[in-house]
TrEMBL record:
PANTHER family named in the record: CHORISMATE SYNTHASE
Keywords, ordered alphabetically: Amino-acid biosynthesis, Aromatic amino acid biosynthesis, FAD, Flavoprotein, FMN, Lyase, NADP
Similarity comment text for this entry: Belongs to the chorismate synthase family.
Binding-site residues, FMN: R132, S133, S134, N251, A252, G296, K311, P312, I313, P314, T315, R337
Signal peptide range in chain numbering: none
Top-rank taxon, per record: Bacteria
Catalytic activity: 5-O-(1-carboxyvinyl)-3-phosphoshikimate = chorismate + phosphate
TM region(s), chain numbering: none
Protein name in UniProt: Chorismate synthase
GO molecular function, one term: FMN binding
Oligomer status and interactors: Homotetramer.
Binding site for NADP(+): R39, R45
EC number(s) stated in the UniProt entry for this protein: 4.2.3.5
C-alpha cells in the first residue's frame, strides 16, 4: 500500500491517492470525518481551525460503501479558498498584480522551512515554501490513516492516542485501554486525568500570553496486534523502524521511542526485557510490556506502544531574531496566523501515521486482494500463537 498527498495550505483542496487497500472492505465516510474533526480540535489552536471544517469526499476507488481494489482518491476542500483565489490561483498573473500582492513573505521564521526551502527551491516569495510545509498537509495523512483504521477495525485491531505531556506537565501513569477510550476523546488536551488536563491548559495559556509556544509528547497504542508483523531479516522491514520514520515525518516531531523508550538505556537487562509466558486459550504472552510490543522489528502480540515528541511550534507572536531576505535587515515582527500548542491535534496525526504503517505491514505480510481472505489469514496467525 502507498499514498501520495498534494495540495497547498491555502489552495483549493488537498488531494490524496491511496493504492493497495483490499477490495470489498466497508468504508464509513461519517467515521472518516469524525477522525478529521478530531485533528482540528484541542486546546491552544488558532483561529484557522474555526474557519475550516474539514470533511472528506471520496472520488474514486469506493462504490456503494465498499472498496473496489482500485486507487482511492480523497479530496478535502478548503472552504477559505474564495478569499485566497487571487493569491493562490494557478493561472499566471501580471507583474503589476504581482508587485501589488500583499501576502508576499520575505521574513523567514526560525524553526520553520521558510528560509532553507527558499534557498533550496529559489523562491523569493517564501509563501511558495510555507504553503506546502504547513501542517495543513497532515489533514491528508489523517484521511489515509482513517481509512486504514477502518481496515484494522475489521481485523479486530484498535488504535488509540493520548497526550503524555505538554510544556513539562506530564501524565505518564499507566491506564487501562478502557480508561483511555472513555476519557481521552472527551478531553480537549487528550489526557485521562482532569487535574493534569487543567495544569496543561494553564501552561498553554501562559505560553500564549507570553507570545510563545509549547510542545509535548504523545503516545499511540495499537491493541490486539497479531504476532510477527514486520521482520528481523532486513533493516527496512522492521516495523518499529518504519513507524519511527513515519512519526518523525510529521511536522515538528523530533523523536520517537517505543515502550519505556530512552529510559531503557538506564536500566538493567532484567528490568527491561519482558518475560515470556503461555496461556492455553490465548497462547504466548509477556509478563510486562516494557519494550512496547516489539521484538526483532516484529510485533510480539503485546500492545504496540509508540511515543512521539513534538517541539514547540515555530510561529511565535513574540518572534525571535531573523533577517528579511530582500533588505537583509534584521526584523522581529512577522505574525502568521498560528497555534500556540498543537500537541493534542498532533496526537491524532501521530495515531493515523502509525495506523498507516501498521496496515501497510499487515498487507505486505498476508495475501490482501480481498478483505475476507485477509481476515482469514490474520485469524490463522492468531491461532498459530496458541498452537505453536
Ligand atoms: C497538528 C500540527 C499543527 C501545527 N501548527 C503549526 C502552526 O500553527 N504554526 C507553526 O508555525 N507550526 C505549526 N506546526 C509545525 C510546523 O508545521 C513545523 O514545525 C514546520 O513544518 C517545520 O518542520 P519541522 O519542525 O519538522 O522542522 C504544526 C504541526 C502539527 C503536527
Amino acid at each position: 500500500m502507498r499514498f501520495l498527498t498534494a495540495g497547498e495550505s491555502h489552495g483549493p483542496q488537498l488531494t490524496v491517492i491511496v493504492e493497495g487497500l483490499p477490495a470489498n472492505m466497508q468504508v464509513d465516510i461519517e467515521k472518516l470525518n469524525e477522525e478529521m474533526y478530531k485533528r482540528q480540535g484541542g486546546y491552544g489552536r488558532g483561529r484557522r481551525m474555526q474557519i475550516e471544517k474539514d470533511s472528506v469526499e471520496i472520488v474514486s476507488g469506493v462504490r456503494h460503501g465498499y472498496t473496489l481494489g482500485s486507487p482511492i482518491t480523497i479530496v478535502i476542500k478548503n472552504d477559505d479558498f474564495t478569499h485566497w483565489r487571487n493569491i493562490m490561483g494557478a493561472a499566471p498573473i501580471s507583474e503589476e498584480a504581482q508587485s501589488e500582492m500583499k501576502r508576499v513573505i520575505t521574513k523567514p521564521r526560525p524553526g520553520h522551512a521558510d528560509l532553507v526551502g527558499g534557498l533550496k527551491y529559489q523562491h523569493r516569495d517564501l509563501r511558495n515554501v510555507l504553503e506546502r510545509s504547513s501542517a495543513r498537509e497532515t489533514a491528508a495523512r489523517v484521511a489515509v490513516g482513517a481509512l486504514c483504521k477502518q481496515l484494522l477495525q475489521q481485523l479486530d485491531i484498535d488504535v488509540y492516542s493520548r497526550v503524555i505531556s505538554i510544556g513539562g506537565v506530564s501524565d505518564k501513569a499507566h491506564y487501562d485501554i478502557e480508561d483511555i477510550i472513555q476519557n481521552v476523546d472527551k478531553n480537549d488536551v487528550r489526557v485521562v486525568d482532569e487535574t493534569i488536563a487543567q495544569q496543561m491548559r494553564d501552561k498553554i495559556d501562559e505560553a500564549k500570553q507570553e507570545g510563545d509556544s509549547i510542545g509535548g509528547v504523545v503516545q499511540v497504542i495499537v491493541n490486539h496486534m497479531p504476532v510477527g508483523i514486520g521482520s528481523y531479516v532486513h533493516y527496512d522491514r522492521k516495523l518499529d523502524g518504519r513507524i519511527a520514520q513515519s512519526v518523525v515525518g510529521i511536522n515538528a516531531f523530533k523523536g520517537v521511542s517505543f515502550g519505556e523508550g530512552f529510559t531503557a538505556g538506564e536500566k538493567l537487562g532484567s528490568e527491561i526485557q519482558d518475560p515470556i509466558l503461555y496461556d492455553e486459550t490465548t497462547g504466548y504472552y509477556r509478563a510486562s510490556n516494557h519494550l512496547g510490543g516489539f521484538e526483532g522489528g516484529m510485533s510480539n502480540g503485546m500492545p504496540l506502544v509508540i511515543n512521539g515528541v513534538m517541539k514547540p511550534i515555530p510561529t511565535l507572536y513574540r518572534p525571535l531574531a531573523s533577517v528579511d531576505i530582500n533588505t537583509k535587515e534584521p526584523f522581529k515582527a512577522t505574525i502568521e496566523r498560528s497555534d500556540s500548542c498543537a500537541v493534542p491535534a498532533a496526537s491524532i496525526v501521530c495515531e493515523h501515521a502509525v495506523t498507516f504503517e501498521v496496515a501497510r505491514a499487515l498487507l505486505e505480510e498476508f495475501e490482501s486482494n480481498d478483505i475476507t481472505i485477509l481476515k482469514q489469514q490474520v485469524d490463522a496467525r492468531r491461532e498459530q500463537n496458541i498452537n505453536f
